[in-house]
Specification:
The complex is a heterodimer of chains A (230) and B (207). Chain A is of the alpha+beta class and 230 residues long. Chain A has helices at residues 33-46, 53-61, 65-70, 73-87, 93-98, 118-124, 149-152, 183-186, 204-207, and strands spanning 129-130, 143-146, 170-180, 195-203, 216-222, 226-228. With 207 residues, chain B is α/β, with parallel strands linked by helices. Classes of the chains: A alpha+beta (230), B alpha/beta (207).
């Protein structure tokens, strides 16, 4: 695989792995009560508007490899959320280490989410599409080649949504989705830098030694992940 | 490991370590005025009791019953979801992909766990597992077999890796046995896994 030494631990498409355990009817939506608390805190924290989903993802990916691999799903969320609250200056390291707030009860923060705002916040979401600034470079049906993931990053260590398995491969433009916020810069507060976003179709046979020629994998790629095929 | 599922429940009255960490973080955030616990409760209530795969199943059932609605659902997805009040967080840009006798669709997120929350709720544990994220793009037919779904060789598989903010919802083929049923009955056939692509519509289990 291309550049496999640099493949980060969260980028696991195509890795060898064991069997999948489907759930059963009646299984709880949240296996443990604390799981739902982590979800609620993460969504409420995100609603403060101090960071984007791209930043949240980058901080989860940036957990040390041993933590990423040993933590359960919601432990990763909790660890990344805690780190983000500290990094953005809302909470101090000492408070986290001591497990206690350092001072008296403070008034509600201006950005804090109120209970009566929750329904509207969930219904509104946060659209990633932006007005079309330029015409898309690529047309439906056109063949393109993907870059290497590191070539798409704006800083190191950086963030990209180009998986290693789909790097330096030839694919075909399936859809154009308009301009979308670029995670590579937005994750680091370097601006939204909207770019044309495409669904790119790859033949499984081109991705995997054992891939079937008729089967395909579709990856959503920003324009700067792609080069015209010459 | 025999104690895998019990290490947080048995032998001790103390909560598990992650449970304590969440509690500590929430205590700090509340004391600092950053988080309102009632807002956290309201978010949990939505995902535990209101936003779930029954919403997606209702859409699929209506699409099976009404060709005009199906055309809208496929071609103007965000518009129709917004009109029906089913848009929003983690489903701002939904694309509906339709199964046909020639093509079966399967959805994954290899980089994290992206999933169309407003129509399917929070993703199940297996969707977020390393095993599913690793294998779905490489050996979808074997993965599907582990869910009890056998795709014939002549039916191609399209695996959608949700790498951007586009969320994919599979529109399964309506089973012949369900023809003529009304929408509320059909909604019971359109199960969650069928809308991810790891399952097919099934007759509802009689209770």
């Amino acid at each position: 695989m291309t550049n496999s030494k640099m493949k980060p631990h969260h980028d696991m498409g195509g890795d060898q792995a064991g069997p999948i355990t489907p759930d059963r009817p009646g299984d709880a939506i949240f296996a443990k009560p604390w799981h739902k608390r982590v979800l609620g805190l993460t969504v409420a924290g995100g609603a403060m508007g101090a960071w984007s989903i791209d930043t949240s993802r980058f901080w989860r990916e940036s957990l040390p490899k041993t933590d990423y691999q040993s933590f359960t799903y919601y432990e990763k969320w909790l660890a990344a959320l805690t780190n983000l609250f500290v990094a953005k200056g809302f909470v101090t390291r000492d408070e986290i280490i001591n497990g206690l707030p350092s001072g008296p009860k403070q008034p509600r923060h201006d950005a804090a989410l109120d209970a009566d705002q929750v329904l509207a916040m969930l219904a509104a979401g946060a659209r990633a599409s932006r007005p079309e600034l330029t015409k898309p470079l690529f047309q439906q049906g056109q063949k393109v080649r993907t870059c290497l993931p590191d070539a798409t990053k704006r800083q190191m260590p950086g963030h990209t949504r180009l998986p290693h398995y789909a790097a330096d491969k030839i694919g075909v433009i399936l859809f154009y989705h308009g301009h979308h916020v670029l995670p590579n810069s937005n994750a680091h507060f370097l601006g939204e830098c909207p770019e044309p976003l495409y669904s790119v179709e790859f033949s499984s046979a081109d991705l995997w030694p054992d891939g079937l020629a008729g089967d395909v994998v579709i990856v959503d790629c920003w324009q700067s992940y792609l080069e015209p095929l010459t | 490991m025999p104690h895998d599922h019990h290490d947080e429940d048995a032998h001790s009255l103390l909560p598990s370590e992650p449970a304590l960490r969440v509690k500590a973080l929430e205590t700090i955030l509340v004391q600092k005025g950053l988080i309102d616990p009632a807002a956290v409760d309201a978010i949990i209530d939505q995902y535990e009791h209101h936003i779930g795969p029954q919403i997606g199943a209702g859409l699929i059932a209506r699409a099976w019953s009404d060709p005009a609605f199906k055309a809208q659902l496929v071609n103007n997805t965000d518009g129709i979801l917004s009109d029906l009040g089913f848009g929003g967080r983690q489903g701002e840009h939904i694309v509906v992909v339709e199964n046909t006798p020639d093509c079966h669709n399967l959805v994954v997120c290899t980089l994290c766990s992206c999933y169309p929350w407003p129509v399917l709720g929070v993703p199940p544990a297996w969707y977020k597992s390393d095993a599913y994220r690793s294998r779905a793009v490489r050996e979808p037919r074997q993965v599907l077999a582990e869910f009890g779904v056998i795709i014939p060789p002549e039916q191609k598989i399209r695996v959608w890796d949700s790498t951007a903010e586009i969320r994919y919802l599979v529109l399964p083929m309506q089973p012949a046995q369900s023809q003529g049923l009304d929408e509320s009955e059909l909604a019971l056939w359109a199960n969650r896994n069928a809308m991810i692509g790891t399952g097919l519509p099934q007759p509802p289990v009689k209770t």
